[in-house]
Amino acid sequence: MNTKLLPLATSGILAIATVIGSITIPALAPAGLLPSSRAFAQDVDEQTNIRVYEVASPAVVSIDAGSSNGSGTIISSEGLVLTNAHVVAGSPRNVSVILSDGRRVQAEVIAFGEKDLDLAVLKIRGQNNLPTIPLAPLGSVRVGQRAYAIGNPFGRFQGTFTVGIVSRIDRQRGLIQTDAAINPGNSGGPLLNSQGELIGVNTAIFTGRQGGNIGIGFAMSLDRVQPFLTAVREGRAPRVSQVQQQATASTNNNYKPQQIALNGAPVSGRLGPGSLVLRADNSFFNIYTFQGKAGQRISIEMDSQEIDPFLILLSPNGRDLGQDDDGGGGNSAKIEATLPGNGTYTLIANSSQPGESGSYNLRIVASGAGGDTRGNARNQGQQGNVIARLESVLGPGASVLPSDGSLFRQTTFTGRGGQSVTISLESPEFDTYLVLLSPEGKVLAQNDNAGADTTNSAITATLPRSGVYRVVVNARDRQGRGRYTLTIR
Questions:
Q1: Is 86 among the catalytic positions?
Q2: Catalytic position from the list 57, 68, 91, 118
Q3: Distance between CA atoms of residues 473 and 459, nearest Å
Q4: Looking at the domain 59-239, which fold is it?
Q5: Which of 3.40.50.880, 3.60.20.10, 1.20.1530.20, 2.60.120.380 is the CATH number of 256-379?
Q6: How far apart are CA 284 and CA 274, in angstroms?
Q7: Is 187 assigned a catalytic role?
């Protein structure tokens, strides 16, 4: 943006011409009628904001990966979508993409970044004339320039547009720091310059103890993005996530995973020197395997008094089935899943922070096909078949709902069209609020009190179609914190 102030000696009039892209806005006014420079600058900024959004937003998509959601940028008219690896790493090979006009289309995850590169590319099927966002020239980003973010914060507000500046450039780590508001769900979306060009991929926020945006967000710069896109177009980029790559490489290099029995005694282990090291964040991990059967329901728990556990479950074909940090409450990780097929499953016992050392206990409880079904058989007539049961804590690490500052967590389950489900949320420590979202992200039902004189919540609903549904565990107000039990039948 170039602004010129030209004094006209003959009339005492200032001519101000501001060029924005190809638009020229002249202002010529007699003395005393000239708008204030502040008002004029605000008008120019507003026009730039509008232009950037109108140019770029048609090429920004939302991504529904089942257990997670995020945003993405269409970078080719044939349907290549750039996003973060962590948005789709735990999903099946095929995910749903919601275009800016509301259409829901299917896309295949075709590439992942290597080592610590949190990038992935999707390919939308059957499209050849989609809007795109161009890449900015390398090295063109400057501290202090305007920065614009578009995305789907919290998976509920598609097309949200925020404005800020480039606050800092970390060239060593390839990150752009910005104060444009970025929240969970913005991951994978674009950071743009005033020309509507992509300057980075929104990747992370710094929250401290606040749990939400505090004006410090990070985008992966083009210096790291462009080599990855070149590898994708040349067919050199991996088709599996970093965790899958390293787990496979470890087992192929004479590393012998420890076998763990279903419904057996807890297995004791230790992370530290001598363990494998995850390249993505330099954290220690150990690998376990177990034999599973299609339809079998499993619950995996990792407890420790010395580290903050993190669990990763991989299918026999290497697909990421689930990850968890604190689903078991406190220093406990927990994954509950229904196994998709017969075969050898891989379990990665990890820590949430790099360099953490300490002992832990690991256990897998199985039921359903091939497992211990006696308890279910006894109780099914009275309570219904339990799809999922989760005991956790609403507290530090939970997301924050912008509208009222209350905390919330999300969990997912796979449902069938026409299936009737009952969801209950119980807590002895806070006033609960429960929401059920459809695969498209629409609110199907919500509840505050399951009955008179109770702070528990309950929902009974008939699912409209088959797909992955989300359950939001929320507190009624911003003070709500504590233990809870979520049951889906």
A1: yes
A2: 118
A3: 12
A4: Thrombin, subunit H (2.40.10)
A5: 2.60.120.380
A6: 9
A7: yes
pLDDT for 52 = 95
Can 403 be counted among the known catalytic residues? Answer: no
The residue that leads in pLDDT, 321 or 24, is 321
For 61-88, how does the pLDDT look when each residue is reduced to its tens digit (9 = 90+)?
A: 999 887 678 999 999 999 999 999 888 8
Could you give the CA distance from residue 229 to residue 94 in angstroms, rounded to a whole number?
20
Q: What b/e readout covers 30-55, taking b as 16+ CB neighbours within 10 angstroms?
A: eeeeeeeeeebeeebeeebeebbbeb
Chain-centroid distance of CA 13 in Å reads: 54
Residue-level pLDDT at 323: 74
Report which of 338, 335, 434 is spatially closest to residue 385, judged by C-alpha positions. Answer: 338
Residues 6+ apart with CB under 8 A from 103: none
Tens of pLDDT, residue by residue over 294-323, are 888 899 999 999 998 988 888 887 766 777
The ranges assigned to domains in the chain are 2-57, 59-239, 256-379, 386-488
Q: Give me the catalytic one of 86, 283, 406, 424.
A: 86
* Residue recorded with tokens 């161009």: 134
